[in-house]
Design goal:
Elements lengths: L1 E5 L6 H12 L3 E5 L4 E4 L6 E4 L2 E2 L5 E4 L6 H13 L3 E2 L3 H8 L1 H10 L7 E2 L7 H7 L5 E5 L8 E4 L2 H13 L4 E5 L7 E8 L2 E9 L14 E4 L4 H14 L3 E9 L2 E8 L5 H7 L3 H28 L7
Parallel strand pairs: 1-2, 1-6, 6-7
Antiparallel strand pairs: 3-4, 4-5, 8-11, 9-10, 9-11, 12-13, 12-15, 13-14, 15-16
Amino acid sequence: MKLAILSREPKSYSTQRLVAAAVARGHDAVVIDHLQCNLVLEKGHPGIIYQGEPLAHFDAIVPRIGASVTFYGTAVVRQFEMMKVRTAVDSQAIVRSRDKLRSMQILSRAGLGMPKTAFTNFSQDVPAMIEQVGGAPVIIKLLEGTQGLGVVLAESVKAAQSVIEAFHNLKARIIVQEFIAESKGADLRAFVVDGEVVGAMKRQGKEGEFRSNLHRGGTGTLVKLSRAEKAAALLATKALGLGIAGVDMLQSKRGPLVLEVNSSPGLEGIEKATQLDIAGRIIDYTAALAAKKRSKSKTKKAADAHPDAPAA
């Protein structure tokens, strides 16, 4: 198989592990910076030009699209889809998961537990909004934030009002969420590939830090998920239409609460915590998608060549 890893960071742990896993399985893997792709739109002949040369003959791609370049990155993934190249993560699924508000609406509709969340355009509604999520303290999140950036813990209504008004003055879109005290600065990351939880870890924030992100100094340790936690991770991934996902959940008195579903989850933390070959599972899944497409193509060609042959 000829596979493309869409990544702006060829030397990152995740990218290198995906390439190594592909090569170990006999595949040809190429890293492509999606921001350097030019998209050519023409009737019946969509194309991609990369570093002056047309990209062709790929069997499948593994998108690693950063949040800051979601618009262009998903356009590149969509172009590959138009070129009949299979993708490990669909372009529309990436778009759905990246919009925190939209994804939470989808997860809520699917019946998943989550922290009470409020969204408004009007800063004068702050006291009522805080009351709607259970009162202070509350978590305030930028809708475009990643890796724990743009996430604030407001201990009081007054503090929350100041933060929310500041964000609104900057024309930033935010959500306000219930603070789950019993989680004690920890959350769960379940890694899902092709409808199966292939690894899970508990992320603990450093002392005095309510955010558990590994990028903010948190630590990850192997954990065995409960049935309810595993079911929540699988349902969240399915609801958003993702073939690969990192599902972040809080443990609470009322069961697992889904915080976020990441369409390009990092591999370093989960592989080191679990000692599992997660990159290999991603490559196997991607290659299987491409093989399925090849099989369908051969069947169609055979049917076209022998239109009068009886169906199998």
